[in-house]
Write a structure and sequence with these properties.
This protein is α/β, with parallel strands linked by helices. The chain contains 14 helices and 21 strands. The strands form five sheets. The chain has an eight-stranded mixed sheet, sandwiched between helices. Strands 13-18-20-19 form a four-stranded antiparallel sheet, with helices on both faces. The protein is globular, with a radius of gyration of 23 Å.
Length: 445
Amino acid sequence: MSLIVQKYGGSSMGSIERIGQVAERVVHSQRGGTSLVVVVSAMQGETDRLLGLAHAACARPDARETDQLIATGEQVAASLLAITLVARGIKAVSLTAAQMRLRTDGVFSRARILSLERRAIDEALGRGAVVVATGFQGIDDHGNLTTLGRGGSDTTAVALAAALRADECEIYTDVLGVYTADPNICPTARKIDVISFEEMLEMASLGAKVLQIRSVELAMNHKVPVRVRSTFSEDRGTLVTDDEEAIERLVVRGVSHNKNEVKVTLRHVPDQPGVAARVFTALALQHINVDVIVQNISEAGTTDLSFTVGRADRVATEQVMHAVARDIGARGAEVEDSIAKVSIIGVGMVAHPGVAATMFKALAAAGINIQMITTSEIKVTCVIDREQTERAVNALHAAFTLDRVTHGERTSSDDRPVARSSNRKASGAKAGPTKHARPTARGRR
């Protein structure tokens, strides 16, 4: 019997009626002969409601207690789905992070999964029950509830799929799959049927909100096929996998954008060895992720140093940088919040020269000035004025003809799950991820 891990986000769990629709999909899957572990997010809007209560009680609520509070949203959702399944004659049991022994580090609001135990899940599956697991949460070594950050339920689902050696991990959301660009601002964007782990990792880190970056990283490390699909459609969605044959067919796979970053500039930084290390070590100690970094040419023994961070880290970054500027003798720190990032991504870029030139020409033709540039083997990112984001995305989408179905790209009809060996013996041994690189951007819940 195959084992599938399914994850349903807040929009899928937004009301009792929608929970009923999820239950019907789960019933259909189970009656088709599939063992199921279902990971759920809190009902739509619930996390924001709870955070609003916390901030109403205190301007800067305690991090531990905030995690204790917002983790309740997933427990409510899991219990409601299990209740609904039982009412439909399906064996079901809800499990919290503590019951699954899903262990995390002790960083509140952005914890990382260290390990989990399979015993409770295996026992429930052995009884023929559907396991409904709380996403987004874990417990640290002291028994404290921790949360995984926005998009954390995706990470929970992939971690469970890896530990249980599931045949596939299905991420259900309110869109049909992964698109060549955000269809909300690019009318010609089209759904991608198959995408590589590497490309999806870059797209997630650069602003695509359909998958949380750490979930993609985890799937890539453990070779877990992930399918992104809609709760409200039978479309097969997008398969994220290690598909080398498919990824060689396209030079640029998609355009991503991110409006949720700010640019920080340290003025007149002493041009001396070790200064940059002091700046970025101070940020790392506060768990602040830095993305694009540019240092100007030195003049008169000083230079300007600019970098981008997530908008959520703006206040903490300003506090750290003002202290660092005094410490290193810089003139001061400035923050600009009217920026955005726009990026092109594609594994095929490695073997095709001229991709960056095409990007820069397209932006120039659209009258868009580039403030900062960063590249890797499979992406080029430009920092631009935020008001020009929509124009930039559409210009790049057209420049690389992403509105066309490229010859040879796989269609949904032959887009089947990737088989995995199944080894699901009942065991109390810990399984799952141990180390992961820290991401450069956070995704959604």
